Amino acid sequence: MRAVQFSEFGGPEVLQVVELPEPHPEPSQIRVVVNACGVNPVDWKIREGMMGGELPRRIGSEVAGVVDEVGDDVTDVTAGDRVFGPTSGGAADFAILSHWAHVPATLDDAGAAALPVAVETAVRGLDLLGVAAGETLLINGGAGAVGTVATQLAVDRGARVIATASERNAERLRAYGAEVTPYGDGLAERVQALAPDGVDRVFDMGPGGALPELVAIAAGDPERVLTISDFAGAAETGVRASGGADSVRRWDALDHAATLVEQGRLSLPVERTFPLEDVAEAQRVSQAGHVSGKLVLIV
Asked: What is the second-level CATH architecture of the domain 119-241?
């Protein structure tokens, strides 16, 4: 099978499409013919060696496709079903899944492949914060994939959402039910103007450096702030961080997300798709930032 692999850490040019043996599922797993694979910042971080690990390595942590092999202990899918879910090395013709959900009939493969990582991260963060109906939640960095999903899920829970974003993405976030303010200097004053009684929780997914101000916005209580992006800042401020190897992943949320998509209550736009052979360009675009929505490889 074709698969994206690299044998040395470095820039996008180290990525190669190579031929590898086909994988086969364990009793509790399934194999899918991959139709689409989501592109995430972790892909280029792995490629550059930020995550360590043995070489050669592969990329691709979420896919959508058609089931073609089913483990002996699996009872909820059959060959031919369309599913999406997390995986390892998913930028390939075949992928093994240990967690999955059925793709809603209203969603194409690219849209389904965009969901798993963003949904899991958003649900994990909202639940760790304890976001509930009637509360005010500030999302710092609301325009990315996780912020887009977290905004909609928090609104669906009955929370008021204030999201930081550039004007380019403000209209989209407002359509999801958020109030939008620019990020950067003066954020505390702008949030104070929108929420004179303060905010209850802060979910940070920004580029880093904002945690001291976010703690101040949360009445000086670091326990009311969670970051998934600024681990160094979390250690300095006492803010909780989530996303490390010891994090309990919330793949159980995929089924509910599929239901929300079917009901028109959750969407995640795909900004651009690339053929598998253009994986290096996809990672260049991802690493450059300013992506509104998701990038997806079409396999």
From this structure: 3-Layer(aba) Sandwich (3.40)
